[in-house]
Amino acid sequence: MKLSRSQKRKLYEILGAAALLIAAVILSAILKPTWWAAILLYLPAFVLAGHETITSALRNILRGQVFDEHFLMSVASIAAMILGEHAEAVGVLLFGALGELFESYAISSARRSVKALAKLCPDTVRVVSPDGNTSEIAAETAEAGTVFLVAAGERIPLDGIILEGEAALDCAALTGESLPVEVEAGHEVAAGAINLSGLLKIRALRPAKESGAARIIAMVEDASAKKARSEAFITKFARYYTPIVVGAALLLAIVPPLIFGGFTDWLYRALNFLVISCPCALVISVPLTFFGTIGGSARRGILFKDNYAIENLSAAKIAAFDKTGTLTEGHLSIDQIRPVSCTPNELIAYAAAAEYGSTHPIAKTVLEAFEGIGGVIGGVAEQLSQSTELRGRGRTCSLGGVIIAAGNRKLLEEMGVQIPSTEENTTVIYVSVDGQYRGSITFSDRIKADSAEAIGKLRNVGVGTVMLSGDNRNGAEKVAAQLGISRFGWGLLPEEKVTALESYRPEGGKLIFVGDGINDAPSLAATDVGIAMGGIGSDAAIEAADVVLPGDNPLKVAEAVRISKKAMAIAKQNIVFAIGIKVLFLILSAFGLTNMWMSVFADVGVSVLAILNAMRTLK
Fold first, then answer.
1. pLDDT digit string, tens, across residues 144-200
2. What is the DSSP letter of 156?
3. How far is CA 290 from CA 13, 225, 226, 307, 605, in A?
4. Are 545 and 524 in contact (CB under 8 A)?
5. How many CB atoms lie within 10 A of CB 365?
6. Is 552 among the residues known to form the active site?
7. How many angstroms separate the first and last alpha carbons of the chain?
8. Domains and CATH numbers, the chain
9. Which of the following is catalytic: 322, 445, 516, 546?
């Protein structure tokens, strides 16, 4: 149990107050002191146990914040001292201080899990100058294009691309995946990953503040500051609840004695009523549940953008998945090249010209194939006078006065190009030059190894699945069949996916959309919970998604649902438990069936149990 300096001081005060209380009880039994002498005997323990509680109550009264737990406990303990219940008066403050120590430790534990993320990025960068010399600079001053070195055992300080070297990287802090990732020259690497072997020379792609790790830290910190509906309910509840119970306690102390007599007895009952009524268990444990969930999940590669995402995800009934890059690997390979009135290499060159400048997986594959046949992409770029992306259909360009189009059947038919009527079972693009059909290129994309298991695990937690794809029907149907998904959409433009999602919205539950965070921003924003996979480097993902999975493992979707359900179950357990116990003890107190020690348990004991329950989210 790691305690901070202030927490250790608090613990020593509690132990000291407990020792003084025991000594006072023993001396009181021996000496049989008068009322004043007894107060003086218990006063050291009273002051040591309650000085923070009483000063906090006075400070809040001066600020106009009268009705809080410090006020309730201060009034109850001071009145108990006056009534001669000295040991109980000290006990109220002593156990109240113990409860605050538990609260402080629980919150600091949750914060440590968040602060640990801040250590993802080193403070310095070992920069390599053009003449080969190295020097260290502050990471925050490094700019895109900076060349730096990372030795074995060091964390990568900036997102970048490897220029020289090969190594295994530990990316667990970023993606939650325990297996090392093998990288070499040409691979992109993320800030925060640990270099397990080899020396890497890397060129920075973006400044430190724009790195994926920096985004993770910012997301977790922002999420921790936002309230979910249940947490906001507790805050509002406490605001009205405390004045009401104070009023009820005053009535209990004044009205019954006028009818039945026994003022001292009824005042004692009212004091018990005040101690029991402290809403600490609710006010502390529910926010702690969300805070702990956000911090604990971040360490597992699941980033909740806000507390509402946890609450909504726990009620998910349908998860709609994008196909390419989400359920499939997104690394396309060319299956067939079918030229018409041109050679295969010419067809690839035409397609490369049209796809130049696109970030779509098809474009990347075509451009790689073009380079593979000796093509020079820079030479193509110099000849382009116009390049246009037609969203969801393909691209066109003007190359040396020739109009080239590469895209789906819909694009070429819109341009009046006749395409042979063939059934395609895979992803395909068609190519035309000056309105003449020049052939097609088909691609294949492997299903991710964990996709089928992910679909099964979602089904096990009561979440049905849907797949939405811009691919042709046969290609989408093939993937859906392999994954056991019975409902799917095909040939959908990005805006058409949003419309399709509405048709799958469940009754009495929430709808999830899972995309790659690049082309699916409209769908991520349109659903109850948008989940971006592998999208931490994408501005669109950060802005549109509610949950970000820095890795690209679809199993994390089911894990996020499971975590959110557990978090909400814990929050509801604490609400029901705390309210139930307090209502029971408040009734018993009104009928004189409790003493101050039982009241302390109903307040501090319940708070400690609720806090311990909330701390389960940290794991």
1. 899 999 998 888 888 899 999 988 888 766 665 656 888 888 888 888 888 888 899
2. P
3. 30, 10, 10, 6, 21
4. yes
5. 21
6. no
7. 15
8. 5-115+223-291+566-618 (no CATH), 124-210 (2.70.150.10), 302-329+447-550 (3.40.50.1000), 333-444 (3.40.1110.10)
9. 322
